[in-house]
Amino acid sequence: MLKRLWLIFGPLLLASILVFLLIFFYPNNPSHNLMEEKYSAAAISSESFKERSQKVRAFTEPNMRFIPFFGSSEWIRFDSMHPAVLAEKYSRPYRPYFLGQAGAASLNQYFGMQQILPEIEEKQAVFVISPQWFTEEDYEPAFFQNYFNNDQLTAFLENQSGDIAAKHAAKRLLKQNPGVSMKGIVEKLSKGEELSEIDHAIIKAFARFNERQASLFGQFSIRGKLKYKEHVENYLKDLPDQFSYEEL
């Protein structure tokens, strides 16, 4: 009986262990490709918004300064005056990296930032604040959960210092996502309790796994080439060759 069970479930168990080891020990050093980073920056997709690897790769690019443009659905409305189009047409020494989606609000931006704090610290950023972020009622949990992932969670848990901001963020996280992973640790933060050494060890292990997972699968999620042509290249011809406020 045991032999039969092993023949059925053994290969599945071994495959699961191998996949886990592959992800856990996958190298976390991004290889740069400026054109692909431009595609990702202008894609304004769910992947480019919430996945770590694409953002980190762009914000560490040695040959171009990518500036985060935080917002929500306004970035999706492309025309010849869109910041991405102007930057490309006039070869500006930076490129906007658009971080926003319809329905994404301040809490999504907060947790998304946790993934890239070392890359954007003491650097420029543009923040467009939407009126929808300031309402008496909290926004729909389904929107928040759609743009939230476990890598954002463990990045937050690694970065937090137990201050008022972390306590408030943890409370809002539990409200927006009651079934969040590592709920016990998040609940401790929401109550202002100090985390144990075991808690920190758990956070560190899961953070490593999530970062490696983002590095492995993030490279396959760039689908921005067609969107770049549609969003940016399509409007370049509508602009004058020489930059001029009067003509624009």
Automatic annotation (TrEMBL):
Keywords: Membrane, Transmembrane, Transmembrane helix. PANTHER family: PROTEIN DLTD. The keyword Transmembrane helix applies. InterPro entries: DltD, LTA_DltD. It comes from the Bacteria. This is Poly D-alanine transfer protein. The chain crosses the membrane at residues 6-26. The keyword Transmembrane applies.
